[in-house]
Amino acid sequence: MVNECGAVSAAQQQPVIQRKLAPPAISGEMFTRDRLNRRITDLLKDHRVVTVCAAAGSGKTTGVAMAVRTLDRVVAWLSLDGTETAPGRLLKYLESAAACHLPHIPPAASQALANGIPPVEAAGLLAESWAGSGLLLVCDNVEKVTADTDALAILSALARYLPAGIGMLLISDSEVVLEIDPADPDTSVGEIDHDILNLNVDEAGQALGGLGIPDQEIADLLAQTHGWLAGTRFAVAQRRSLDNAGNRTADRLTAKVLAPLSQSARSFLTRTSLLAEVTVEFAIALEEPDAAQLMVQLTTTRLPATWSADRKRLILYPLFREWLAARLAGSEDAETIRRLRSNYAEVLAQNGHPVEAVDTLLSLGETERAWRQAALALPNMVARMDFTSATRWLDDLVAIEKTPTPEVGMIVLRGSFAMEQSGRGNRLLERFGHDWLPGPDSPYFEEALLLAAWCRWHDGRLTEARVLADRLPTGRARDAAENLLALSEGGAPPFPEFSSTPSDTIDALLMRIGYFRGRLRELDRPTGPNSGPGSLGVPWVIAGLRATGRIHEAMQIYEVLRSGWQPPWLHAFDAVDLMIDLGRRDEAWTAQNRGHQLIAGTGSRVYRIFGYLNEAKLQLRLHQDTEAARRALAEAESGGADNHAFSRELCQLWRGLCHLLDNRNDEALTELEACVESMRLGDRRLELATVATYLAEAYWRLGKEDASDEAAELALREASARGSQHLLLNALADVPAVAVRAADASPNRQSRWHELTALLSGDSQVQLSARAPRLVLEEFGEATLTLDGMPANPRLSKSIELMSYLLAARREVTREELLGALFDSRNDAADSSYLRQALYRLRAVLPDELAPQQNGNRFAFPHPELVCGTSQIVLDGLTQADRQDDEIRLRTMIEALTRANRGQYLAALSGPWVEQRRFEVGARLTDGRIDAAKLAFRLSRYREARLMVDEVLRVSPDREQAWQLAISLAHASGRDDTVLALYQRYMAAMRDLGVAPSAEVHRLVTRLRR
């Protein structure tokens, strides 16, 4: 242990020596450095000499002082200050440090020096004199003497002659290279560097724990400082305004770090602080001709930085680099700094960092060079949705006074399209006209005209957009322009297929148009060479997935992008529709309000119209507020909705629903008939099923029953053709009588209308979590609990039952409800005790944020989005499938049902609540299997249908729909004998149940045998 220095000689009593021999004072508030403690202990077992070399401010001295306090051995401490280079002085200081703790040992070094023995030999004698004492000698600030050959020779001699069991620990800001035989195991040196000294997350949490800093902020600090202790504390002080002299503190720390370096090395580091990575090549580009020699010099000094394995690349910690950059600004004249930064931009551009190069050049006002680089960088930026930089660039570009070149102009148009900010492109066109647009011999010709037409169309300049489109030659760009203008002009030009070698611009535009044309099956994945969550068409992929009921897939993509501010369609329209579908009313309105703000920044009149149309839909779907909806529709019309066929139709659609809700049926009929006719003529079929549904209701109310039936069938045909059963169900939820009447008119109970009616009467609210659950309870078969993929066993079955009950409830549950559901002993005290035990066992194996929490008399999960049970996953999957159609629906249903194949719900548990829940889950699974079998039958996938219906009949022989389906399958497969055999089995099953056979089954068999 480190002890206070005892009685020493008169020379040793001098204040300077006393200061050198004193280890640093350690506050009781210091955090523990377990990694460092273990590392020092382990190295001292195998090495007599250990070096601790790291940058100033890394906590070396204090960390070592704390570590050696844990050692069960005598520790002597010597702090060097650079005055020890006189012959023999360092040796006497070393001897004095040991003498404080070993007063019984004769002063071997002093006696040797008095007898004329050279200091290096005297050092060996001093080391040997400590034999058997177990001494550990700690020398701090060794960098202050390593440049002196005599001092280094003494430390080297000491290291060579240390007896077994004696150790020496050297603390230094720079590398310590002792003159020893590296092959000699007795003198090998153990090394500790910044990797051990830099704070990790746990250590930083301890060091900063008293300040109440959130974990995420601590992680941000470590990213900025790499765990450099002094830098981390400084950064905290700056963030919390605890250090009013922050700049002076930074200057002192920087000076301390740079102190061991030569003046030329300090200047080199300061000037190259512009570089994210310092290499010889980059440094020479910044006018550092001696870069190679200086880089070698820097390798011997410990800095707040990391080196590549080959020691050719130096990467400064971000905070230290910032300090050096500030030092540069104060040490060089403006012109020198400008020249260095210009050179730096060239380095960036040549080494694959065009974004940083452009930003640097723009900040220097070197616009022409900046835009040459921007022309190369912007396409990739847009593809990966780096809109922040792109927007800044485009703002600067438009400020250029001279007419843009085609290359520069294309940057503006492409960026405007990618960010859905047509206003930018329109400002360019209004300022410079069309003369700058590239001609037919340019590779940009068709794309430029198409994008210019798109900008003018968004601004409502339809005549000008038509002129631009007419200049396009025959081809895909012309087809895309014609389809765009048809949304306003009302025509229905042939819709081109997506290209096998897609163009981002043309195909992304076709995706936007195709959405309104109802071509939803083609929007199930992004297109373009950069397909993925960052592709230009992804907002319409989300829209298409959502329209076809694939809410989970749509949300998965949306969650990746929702934190950004672009693109507007994603936030202004996709988000609103998704939140409506998920029943999140408040979030839907939040998205709507945010959407209005984003739309204002796009400069698009079309988007402004659609923002109000969306608001009208929200008012009607969520609140049935027809007056508020009419106000929103009036805003859309004042903005020019009637100038575009597709927005005029949507005004008619939502106004028609307003009239229906107000029972103004004649007016509703007028609006809805006109809307259906326009949509059919223009082949704009996205909402055709919706408007046909409303029209069927209007016809019925006015006594036009045949017309009502035709309109309902049109709605069903359109939904089937588009795969948009989700949109149809949304419309039927507004006027459910349409489905009921159509089902009543159907010849049998297996019609599509009966399916839709059943879906409307059930719990059709899709529920999805925005985050992947961390805690999953497997409820089918033997119940198991996993936390982050690893088993978590509470060792009490009642804990599992408790958790399953809370998961099924999806709300706060009172103590009385829990006791009543989970216990039937009628012993309140025993039940309460058992409930506490069940909760305790869960909390023992789960983190606080995932374990059930008690709030007064109520229990719930604090973060329900992170916790789930597989029964609810299966039921939610079936509910989501209800909004889908055809192959997509069948795939979703099979995926959900497969998860339930492990066995019964909570198979090993019993009790009234478990039995009731097991019955409810089982009934829903049986319904799901029947629905899946019916769908497979309709899709001519007879084998899958037969397997599912056989499973239903095995466990639920009372299901008449399953018998009808089994008989129909046998007939469709050409097995007439099986039809009769199944009918006989059915009759026997009904006799066993004691009920009369269904006349409908009899009619089915009679009809099939004709």
From TrEMBL:
Name of the protein: Serine/threonine-protein kinase PknK
Signal peptide from the UniProt entry: none
Keyword Aminoacyl-tRNA synthetase set for record: no
Domain Bacterial transcriptional activator, first and last residues per copy: 875-1009
InterPro entries per the UniProt record, alphabetical: AfsR-DnrI-RedD_regulator, BTAD, P-loop_NTPase, TPR-like_helical_dom_sf, WH-like_DNA-bd_sf, WHD_MalT
Assigned keywords, A-Z: Kinase, Transcription, Transcription regulation, Transferase
Single annotated GO MF: DNA binding
Domain of life: Bacteria
BP GO annotations: regulation of DNA-templated transcription
PANTHER family: TRANSCRIPTIONAL REGULATOR REDD (PTHR35807:SF1), TRANSCRIPTIONAL REGULATOR REDD-RELATED (PTHR35807)
Keyword Transcription attached: yes
